[in-house]
Amino acid sequence: MTYNELKSLGLSLEQLRQLRRNVSMLIEDTAHNAIQQLGVGSIVRINHKKCDPNDKYTIVKINRKTVTLHRNGGALGNKVKASMGLLEAF
Fold first, then answer.
1. How many domains does the chain have?
2. How many Å is the maximal CA-CA distance in the chain?
3. Has residue 3 been placed in a domain?
4. Strand order in the sheet with 87-89
5. Residue 2 lies in a domain
6. Residue 22 in contact with residue 77, Cβ under 8 Å?
7. pLDDT tens for each residue of the chain, 90 residues long
């Protein structure tokens, strides 16, 4: 939905704030469900501007907020820590 489409709906400020809260909760739930399917040994990629989108990583350890990854095809010391929100199943 574009800015102009939202503006044409004529929603009040409170309705727009509620819409923002609902969209944020939907995004969090979707990301949480995708992350629950990942486990140690899963192959993922990191969605970040500094990471090559073609690089594959294997999950080594899952902490409360971060995940330790090992880059596939790289040297033994290629460990990376990333937030769970940046991970995408490959």
1. 1
2. 57
3. no
4. 79-83, 66-71, 57-62, 43-46, 87-89
5. no
6. no
7. 888 998 899 999 999 999 999 999 998 887 777 667 888 999 999 989 988 888 899 999 988 888 999 988 766 668 899 988 888 887
Question: From CA 62, how far away is CA 60, in angstroms rounded?
Answer: 7
Distance of alpha carbon 7 from alpha carbon 49, whole angstroms: 31
Q: Does 18 reside within a domain? A: yes
Q: What is the DSSP letter of 72?
A: T
Judge whether 50 lies within some domain: yes
H-run or E-run covering 2: none
CATH number of residue 17's parent domain: 2.30.30.30
Angle at CA 25, nearest 5°, toward 20 and 27?
A: 95
For residue 78, give the DSSP letter.
Answer: -
